[in-house]
Specification:
This protein is an alpha/beta fold and 283 residues long. It contains ten helices and eleven strands. It binds NADPH dihydro-nicotinamide-adenine-dinucleotide phosphate (NDP).
Length: 283
């Protein structure tokens, strides 16, 4: 049996550390980190995410603000709110919960956010700086994966890392984060020829395709570290990852479960980015 990477526990450890640092920041410098979340429309999944973020803020002692806007909100109105938050000294980080309704241009919204307050790490400034060094903020899910590897003291330097999935929010930023730490990185997608041949090379295999249990045991190298980012709801209601977990356990040395692996790390990293944002903006 591989070691199970307990994202729920690590996420709680990170939050406990953030709560302590927040208390110190408040006591020593009178700063309370503030996070605002804007939700446009009534997508049920987005509402759950926003509630989770608000509760997490409360738990670590942050100020939290929430903007719930109707789905017919104009892009101009949304840009006005963003402009206000860019100037709001109580708010150190904020995000617009994606996806936004179709009449709103996602790029225009993300680009309007002050990069120092872009705690999702999606602004082109932060994305570009991830390539050249020292972004203000890094995308939360890949940052959470790096945190899990580090907390389990998994060596990254010199390792063959294979990422399945090249989205802007997971696969692409993760390429740079692993490369920065001296892994040899390969990224796969729907046009990759002979996917199993590539994944079998991986000493660190990250599955972020959003395809239930597509990574079978025979696609995994013996002793690989397997990180499953996928969150897929089956018709039966069961939640599964992109990795066939029981099969993978026959081969992996470490593995993240779904749920309770990468999932809980995303909000923890959002809180950490917000705490960092509060420190940057006080300088
Ligand atoms: P996207 O749909 O944006 O991207 C999926 C990527 O996987 C694409 O690059 C696609 O390739 C690739 N892909 C899909 N099918 C295959 C296949 N059969 N073989 C090889 N590559 C494939 O997804 P996201 O990155 O947004 O999310 C991926 C998964 O991670 C989802 O299950 C999502 O729910 C989960 N997720 C979890 C988070 C968390 O834990 N907090 C946060 C974000 C996402 P191509 O580019 O060629 O289309």
């Amino acid at each position: 049996m591989p070691a199970i990477i307990d994202g729920k526990k690590i996420s709680q450890d990170v939050r406990d550390e953030i709560r302590e640092k927040t208390l110190r920041l408040k006591g020593e410098r009178g700063i309370v980190p503030g996070l605002a979340v804007i939700l446009v429309g009534d997508d049920p999944a987005s509402q759950i995410y926003v509630r989770g973020k608000k509760n997490a803020c409360r738990e670590v002692g942050f100020l939290s603000k929430e903007f719930r806007l109707p789905s017919d909100t104009s892009e101009t109105k949304l840009l006005d709110i963003i402009d206000g938050l860019n100037r709001d000294h109580e708010i150190h980080g904020f995000l617009v919960q994606l996806p936004v309704p179709e009449h709103i241009r996602t790029d225009a919204i993300i680009e309007a956010i002050d990069p120092r307050k872009d705690v999702d790490g999606f602004h082109p400034y932060n994305v570009g700086k991830l390539f050249s060094g020292n972004p203000y903020h890094r995308a939360c899910t890949p940052a959470g994966i790096m945190e899990l590897l580090d907390r389990y003291e998994i060596e990254i330097k010199g390792k063959e890392a294979v990422i399945v999935g090249r989205s802007n929010i997971v696969g692409k930023p993760l390429i740079m984060m692993l490369l920065e730490r001296h892994a040899t990185v390969t990224v796969c997608h729907t046009r990759t020829k002979d996917l199993p041949k590539v994944t079998r090379r991986a000493e660190i295999l990250v599955a972020a395709a959003g395809k239930p249990e597509m990574i079978r045991g025979d696609m995994i190298r013996d002793g690989a570290v397997v990180i499953d980012v996928g969150i897929n709801r089956l018709d039966t209601g069961k939640l599964v990852g992109d990795v066939a977990f029981a099969d993978a356990c026959e081969r992996a040395s470490y593995i993240t479960p779904v749920p309770g692996g990468v999932g809980p790390m995303t909000i923890a990293m959002l809180l950490r980015n917000t705490l960092d944002a509060a420190s940057i903006q006080d300088k």
